[in-house]
Amino acid sequence: MKLFLIAGARPNFMKIAPLMHALEGNKNIEVLLIHTGQHYDLSMSGQFFEELNIPSPHINLEVGSASQAIQTARIMERFEAVCLQEKPDAVMVVGDVNSTAACTLVAAKLGITTMHYEAGLRSRDRSMPEEINRLVTDAISDYFFTTSRDADDNLIQEGQPKEKIFMVGNLMIDSLVANLGKATKTELCFTSLNRTQQIVFGLQFIKKQYGVMTFHRPNNVDEKESLARLIDVWGKVSQVIPLVFPVHPRTYKNIQTFGLQDKINAFPHLYFIAPLGYLQFINLVQHAAFVLTDSGGIQEETTYLNIPCLTVRPTTERPITIWEGSNKLIKVNDIVSEVDLILQGKGKKGSIPKYWDGKTAERILNILYIF
Ligand code: UD1
Questions:
Q1: Which atom of ligand 1 is nearest to the CA of 249?
Q2: Alpha-carbon span 297 to 43, nearest angstrom
Q3: Confidence (pTM)
Q4: Within the chain, which residues score under 70 in pLDDT?
Q5: Residue nearest ligand 1's atom 11 by CA
């Protein structure tokens, strides 16, 4: 089987790494890694390939940043040409980014077998571009690899045949399990984006006495008013416990465009740093008292690590992290009181969902052999 594995944006890289490693040297499956170039710079792409030991992509479509439609269209145009030339038997996509939906559309129309890892997740919030990507991808995929039973139920409800759905567990947790030891040894010393001094673990913040945050959802950061309101709340929290924020480029750009940097600088314990590599980020999270986020994948990583996670979103496509894990959905207005609860030792504790055990790539491989 000639298999194309697609990766485009940061959250895809920790999902494809364990698959690439499992497929290395395989005599029955020839894998070609295609990077769409949706994320392209060292901080959002290159360092993940290095740290996770992912081989260089066979082909890079180099689409870069653009509007939703233009980026999707560019990926489709360039990916179609590659499919026509290379003639893969199957295309596997992961996650819910624009690259996921665009490549599935192309492959399905060319009659190539399509497989979606992380299928069936639904936030029911169509204002998220990722939800549209999930719906489109699953509507036209041939096979579905899921991370939890609720995803299977969603797919079945949407009319997908049971025999094409495989609950395999969580590839992101494969990466976490494989790299936790290495991550623990990384140095936690960062260059600040809003001050001159270095920020050093053990000086400005110490084990279990700081929070980590990440925000980049368009709903939270693309409007000046909502971003300014968030900054006020982050500031308030930082007066109680230091907050370390590896800032996503989308958020950073908006802070500058809206002229909000001074507002941030007014809070001495709000530490803005450049986006981190995988290992440092995991190390930072594992020693945190809590994580404040609007991310998708971090809800899963904190569940595995049993770190209280406050997700500032109205819905989540990963409800298992709430039912079983340490995640909680909250509103902006409740951030301060929820952090307070955690600091009183009343943070949410959870358990690890089924098959989030580091062996998901192995399970996927065993299924690929049957095809
Ligand atoms: C994308 C995904 C989102 C995922 C996120 C993780 C979609 C619809 N969204 O959102 O699901 O959670 O990635 O980061 O696919 N930029 C850089 N360097 C890069 C890439 C981007 O500086 O390597 C900047 C660009 O200025 C760009 C902005 O970041 O305009 C946003 O990037 P984009 O790919 O549009 O979407 P994300 O917000 O990252």
A1: 29
A2: 17
A3: 0.96
A4: none
A5: 97
